[in-house]
Each structure stands twice: as structure tokens, then as C-alpha cells.
Amino acid sequence: MEKILNYANPAWYAEGSKLSGRARLIEVLDDISDKIETEFPDDLDVQAELHHKATEIYQANGNYPKSLRHAERALEIRRVLFGDKNVEVAKDKYYLGAVYLKFLKINQSLKLHEEAAATFREIAPDNANLPFLLEDLGGIYRGHWQAKLILEELLAFFRENLPPNHGQTLEHKKLLEKIEKAGSADSLSAAVQAKR
After folding, report:
1. Which of 35, 71, 81, 190 has CB atoms 3.0–4.6 Å from 96's, for a disulfide?
2. One-letter-per-residue 3-state SS of the chain
């Protein structure tokens, strides 16, 4: 924590000297994210969580190459720690799959999304990542019959976990009605893609 606070210190000996003590948090992350494993050599759990956080931040900021590197490392470490049937591993599979989508690595993304969804369904069906993962799967399955099944599962999730008049529940109910009317999964894919 002291090191991070020193990015606000403009003194010559502090981390903040090169930016006159005016570092933005993303610049701090850029500087420290390559040092995760040297800073926490004996704590794989901390390393994995910090790599995951870096993945989230870089992905949200559109820096997909950095996000990819951290997502791969987070998943690698968590697999060592927990094996494949673990909620944290499933979360990292989902995030890495989402990054792969940005690089148009559709097959790798689909495989990770499917594995993550299977784990969440089996051991954590109420996990907050599951509905977003299912939306991504709906987009990946554009034009395939699986898209309708995923939307039905997503709608059931929202009905169980949200009030009946919640925006997500109503929105996905309308999407499912459109698909059933059109008789095609293309409208799901278009609707999911339009939401992004």
C-alpha cells in the first residue's frame, strides 16, 4: 500500500517522481502490474486476484493485449490452486473467454464460456457472473438454436433472482417473445449485440 501511495509523492526517490506526483490510477497499474509475482512470490491467491483485477480494469479500458496477458495468468494460477471445478476458476475462464472474443478467437472463447457456464450451473447457479456469461454465449451462438435455449435459461435466472417488473426480466422476456415469433435465434444475437 505504501508503494501505491508513493505514486502521489513527487520527490526524486518516490514512485511518483516520473509523473510529478500526479499519476492516474491506470498509470500506477501499468507500472505495478508486471511486478505482481515478484511483490507476492509466496502468495498465489493474491497473485491470481491481482491478475484478475488487472484483467477487469484493462478490459474495461479497452486495453485488450494487457487484459489478455493478465487473464491468462489469473486462470493459470487459479487452476494450480483449485483445479477446474471452482467458482474462481470459472470466473477467470469467463473473463479470458470475453477477452478472446475481442481478438475474434471464437472457438477458444466458446470453449471457455461453455466450461465456465457448466461450472456455475453445477456449483454456483446464483453466481452474479452467470447471466452476463449467458448473454455472451447468446451472442457467440448467433443464428444457432442454442441461442434460444440460452435466452430461456437467462430469463429463468432473472425470474428467480429479480422482481417480475425488473428491467432485465422484462427485456429478456420481450427478446424471447420476438424470437418465438420470428422462429429464429438471429434476433437474440442482434439484440444482445445491440445492448453492448
Report:
1. 71
2. CHHHHHHHCCCCCCHHHHHCCCCCHHHHHHHHHHHHHHHCCCCHHHHHHHHHHHHHHHHHCCCHHHHHHHHHHHHHHHHHHHCCCCHHHHHHHHHHHHHHHHCCCHHHHHHHHHHHHHHHHHHCCCCCCHHHHHHHHHHHCCCCHHHHHHHHHHHHHHHHHCCCCCHHHHHHHHHHHHHHHHCCCHHHHHHHHHHC
